[in-house]
Specification:
The protein is 32% helix and 20% strand. By secondary structure, it is an alpha/beta fold. A hairpin with a 2-residue loop joins strand 16 (339-348) and strand 17. It binds inosinic acid.
Length: 428
């Protein structure tokens, strides 16, 4: 009954889509457990490139059943648009299962996300503006709308009216916006609910039965470790738990059913939005990494902040997720550099930190301590065995492995599906 969790080990955009898709061809279910359409995966299959936000990347694999777990916040309009977009390109989405307990991103959540960010000015989080935080806030405040509520008109009206009672006051009096009309909102939500109905199911039961039957389930995290509401760089984080524990709470599967936890790390680091980032580059090397790695957000199109590999972050990711394997992506982007710096520790006001300072004031002051590794110039995109990589490239990977405290089991060497070196099988 293999349960495999796949998460981002840094600040997101590590290339999880490619890793998920690679494993996804061999699994029976791919279940997303957190976040919403703030995520963005690009999956490249042949000449086709698919930008996915809400759908699990397993949707592209014909043999896997894609699942949206209860821990995800679902914007029904976005989900339906994504389904329509894929179906028009010949991808069958009829296998999709959506948890009836997942919370809904309502139209007012999107509005609140945008106005509160604007209102915060310099103190903004730099959210994706998709309504993620406000939807999770309502879930925790126990005034959220769940997918199953979309099928009970009276219950839905009652809940929307209750939620808008306070929110409309805030929108009108504090933010100078128009109030949401309860009835129009209810009708809009009922209409999308009707279209979503065929996909809605008791996904916790389905996944548990599947695991009991010896099927393989891949639990796919949105965002990443350093954006976790508990373990990330709070408050510059997302509003869910992208770390491995979130796979259990976000799908209704117990920890005893998880056999493997795979972390995806880029061979360097990127971040979008605000918040501390010790290895961030402000010079031409940062520009170079952005250009070489095409580092622009799939969801917002924002240029990503770029920096060197941060081994302190990776060691921390190994710790808080209990990683068993790392998939290292975009190694090819570093080709052509004479020397490659790796951040091995931090200097915080004259004190060396080998481990992540959880005090955010200390983390914000952290300066990277670098160790230099020699680079390589050879094209590595056609290499399929670790031993065939240039020696300096092998040394770089081995160094990252040693510093991360977890084995590197696969290495991404280019954007195509087959641009990958599998060092250890991710499935046995
Ligand atoms: P939110 O998730 O839209 O509330 O945004 C909170 C923070 O998480 C912001 O800094 C976003 O840029 C970041 N974020 C959210 N989703 C992703 C993602 O998929 N990749 C990278 N950063 C993300």
């Amino acid at each position: 009954m293999p349960g495999i969790v796949l998460i981002g080990a840094q600040w997101g955009d590590e290339g999880k889509g490619k890793a998920t898709d690679l494993i996804g061809t061999k699994v029976d279910y791919v279940a997303r457990f957190n976040g919403g359409n703030n995520a963005g995966h690009t999956v490249v299959v042949g000449d086709e490139s698919y930008a996915l936000h809400l759908l699990p990347s397993g949707i592209i694999s014909p043999n896997a059943t894609p699942v949206i777990g209860n821990g995800v916040v679902v914007d029904p309009e976005v989900l339906l648009e994504e389904i329509d977009g894929l179906e028009s390109r010949g991808i069958d989405c009829s296998r999709l299962l959506v948890s009836e307990s997942a919370h809904v991103i309502a139209p007012y959540h999107r509005m609140i996300d945008k106005v509160t960010e604007r209102f915060a000015g310099k103190k903004k989080i730099g959210t994706t503006g998709r309504g993620i935080g406000p939807a999770y806030a309502d879930k925790i405040n126990r005034v959220g709308i769940r997918i199953s509520d979309l099928f009970h008109e009276d219950v839905l009206r009652d809940k929307v009216s209750n939620a808008l009672h306070q929110k409309n006051q805030m929108l009108v009096k504090l933010y100078n916006r128009r109030a949401f009309d309860v009835e129009a909102t209810v009708q809009e939500m009922l209409a999308v609910g009707e279209r979503l109905k065929p996909y809605v199911a008791n996904t916790s039961l389905i996944l548990n039965n599947a695991l009991d039957d010896g099927k393989t389930v891949l639990f796919e995290g949105g965002q990443a470790t350093m954006l976790d509401i508990d373990h990330g760089t709070y408050p510059f984080v997302t509003s869910s738990n992208p770390t491995a524990g979130g796979a259990c709470t976000g799908t209704g599967v117990g920890p005893t059913k998880i056999n493997r936890v795979i972390g995806v790390s880029k061979a360097y680091v990127t971040r979008v939005g605000e918040g501390p980032f010790p290895t961030e580059l402000f010079d031409e090397s940062g520009e170079w990494l952005r250009a070489q790695g095409h580092e622009y957000g799939v969801t917002t199109g924002r240029p990503r902040r770029c920096g060197w590999f941060d081994a302190v972050v990776n060691r921390y990711a190994t710790q808080v997720n209990g990683l068993t394997d790392i998939v290292l992506t975009k190694l090819d982007v570093l080709t052509g550099l004479k020397e490659i710096p790796i951040c091995v520790a931090y200097d915080v006001n004259g004190v060396r930190y080998d481990d992540m300072p959880t005090d955010q004031t200390a983390f914000a002051a952290a300066k990277p301590i670098y160790e230099m590794m020699p680079g390589w110039t050879e094209d590595i995109s056609q290499v399929h065995a670790f031993e065939d990589l240039p020696q300096t490239c092998q040394d770089y990977v081995k160094k990252l492995e040693e510093l991360s405290g977890c084995r590197i089991s696969a290495i991404g060497t280019g954007p195509q599906r087959d641009h990958i070196i599998e060092v250890h099988s991710l499935l046995d």
